[in-house]
Design brief:
Pfam families: ABC2_membrane_2
Strand content: under 5%
Keywords: Membrane, Transmembrane, Transmembrane helix
Distance between the termini: 18 Å
Structural class: mainly alpha
Transmembrane segments: 22-46, 58-80, 101-129, 141-161, 170-187, 217-244
Order of helices and strands: HHHHHHHHHHH
GO cellular component, one term: plasma membrane
Protein name: ABC transporter permease
Oligomer: single chain
Helix content: over 70%
Shape: globular
Number of domains: 1
């Protein structure tokens, strides 16, 4: 692994890669959907206490939880498999280490969706200010961190699947099936330990912090949640690195 090689791959994907415009386009759609959810949240304002106002960060976070995995699937299922299918991966890995190739792809997608989370957070701040609500910067920061890590978990999952696949069709099918399995595991209920295998569990668990910044023992719960999502992302990213090293390309 070479940091300069990772930077080269990441910059090439971000500014020159054929996939870059496609990923940024869907990232923009994601931000727009969150904007619509916040804009039309006034129609459900009766669900929230009048004194507290509309929790725009919570509404945005619900959109991220529900739509985010599907946006990530669309933008990342072919991030590696397309290179394998066309054979261009052989040229790339002759110039850089395989691990740098994978990490560059990951950080490209992660950068895009960190930018998306930042955009959504800024829109939430603007809506809070325009409505005269209390300035909840801490909640916005938590939203940004939770959203980025939550989306990062799915990036690492679909990157791993794409690394295993020989073409885009197989990669998309495997990614869709795996996402369906994760949803099934999560819907089994609170008493089922399978929920711990899904990013959905950790994402939904953080919803309570969108309603109010934690105090006291709540800080430990936040740290545990952040650590869990980071480890989840690290596990799948490590499996991607192991898979690409063992593949006959």
């Amino acid at each position: 692994m070479n940091f300069s090689e990772i930077q080269i791959i990441g910059e090439d994907e971000t500014f020159k890669g054929s996939k870059s415009k496609y990923v940024w386009f869907f990232g923009g759609i994601f931000v727009f959907l969150c904007f619509l959810a916040m804009h039309y949240s006034t129609y459900i304002s009766f669900l929230f206490p009048i004194s507290e106002g509309i929790p725009y960060s919570l509404i945005s976070y619900i959109v991220v939880l529900s739509i985010g995995p599907f946006i990530i699937l669309i933008t990342s299922f072919d991030i590696v498999s397309s290179e394998i299918e066309t054979g261009s991966v052989r040229y790339i890995i002759s110039k850089v280490h395989r691990s740098s190739f994978i990490l560059g792809k990951f950080f490209f997608l992660f950068l895009v969706f960190i930018s998306v989370s930042t955009g959504i957070a800024l829109i939430s701040l603007i809506y809070q200010y325009s409505e005269g609500n209390a300035f909840q910067l801490k909640n916005i920061v938590l939203f940004w961190i939770f959203s980025s890590l939550y989306l990062g978990c799915f990036i690492s999952i679909f990157l791993f699947i794409s690394t295993l696949s020989v073409n885009n069709k197989i990669s998309f099918t495997m990614s869709a099936v795996f996402l369906g399995i994760l949803i099934f595991f999560f819907l089994q209920g609170q008493d089922n330990y399978l929920k711990y295998l899904t990013p959905f569990f950790y994402g939904v668990k953080n919803m309570e912090f969108m309603k109010g910044f934690p105090v006291g023992a709540g800080y430990l719960t936040v740290f545990e949640s952040l650590l869990s999502m980071f480890l989840y992302m690290l596990v799948f990213l490590s499996m991607s690195l192991l898979a690409i090293k063992r593949r006959d390309l």
